[in-house]
C-alpha cells in the first residue's frame, strides 16, 4: 500500500495511545498515517474544537513528500458527525477556488 496516506480520525475523547494499534497496523502495511483525536467538547462545538485538528491533518497530508497516491479516511464512532460537515465545507471551498483559478 505504498503511497497510501491514512487520515485516522479517532472517536470523541480518544487519545493517540488508544489508536496506537491501528497506527502500527497501517505502518506495517507501508502507509503514511496522520492522526486526529477530537476532544469531548467537539460534540458541542465542532467548528471550534475540530476545525484546527482537521486543518492540521490536511496540512500534514498535503505537505507530505511525495504527495499521497491514495488517501483513506478511517473514522471511528463520533468522528463522522464531527468531521464530515467540515470536510464537505472544505471540499466545496477548494472546488470553488479551483474553478475560479
Describe the structure.
With 101 residues, the chain is an alpha/beta fold. The chain is 48% helix and 17% strand. It has a three-stranded parallel sheet with strand order 2-1-3, with helices on both faces. Helix 1 (20-28) links the parallel strand 1 and strand 2 (32-36).
Pick out the low-confidence regions: none
Indicate the percent of residues in helices.
Answer: 40-55%
State the separation between the terminal residues, measured CA to CA: 33 Å
Number of strands: 3
Count of discrete alpha- or pi-helical segments spanning 4 or more residues: 3
Radius of gyration: 14 Å
Whole-number average pLDDT?
82
User: Quaternary arrangement of the chains shown?
Assistant: single chain
Residues in β-strands, percent: 15-25%
Shape descriptor reads flat
Derived from helix and strand composition plus strand pairing, the structural class reads: alpha/beta
Strand count, sense and closure of the main sheet? 3 strands, parallel
* Main sheet: strand order: 2-1-3
Order of H and E elements = EHEHEH
Which helices and strands occur, and which strands form pairs?
Layout: E1 4-9, H1 20-28, E2 32-36, H2 46-62, E3 70-75, H3 79-100
Helix pairs in contact: 2-3
Task: Describe the structure in brief.
48% of the residues lie in helices and 17% in strands.
Structure characteristics:
101 residues; alpha/beta; 3-stranded parallel β-sheet; flat
Amino acid at each position: 500500500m505504498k503511497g497510501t496516506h491514512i487520515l485516522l480520525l479517532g472517536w470523541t475523547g480518544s487519545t493517540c495511545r488508544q489508536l496506537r494499534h491501528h497506527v502500527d497496523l497501517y505502518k506495517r502495511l507501508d502507509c503514511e498515517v496522520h492522526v486526529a483525536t477530537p476532544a469531548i467538547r467537539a460534540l458541542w462545538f465542532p467548528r471550534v474544537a475540530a476545525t484546527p485538528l482537521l486543518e492540521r491533518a490536511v496540512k500534514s497530508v498535503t505537505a507530505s513528500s511525495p504527495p499521497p497516491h491514495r488517501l483513506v479516511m478511517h473514522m471511528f464512532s463520533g468522528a463522522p458527525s464531527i468531521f464530515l460537515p467540515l470536510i464537505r465545507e472544505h471540499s466545496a471551498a477548494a472546488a470553488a477556488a479551483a474553478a475560479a483559478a
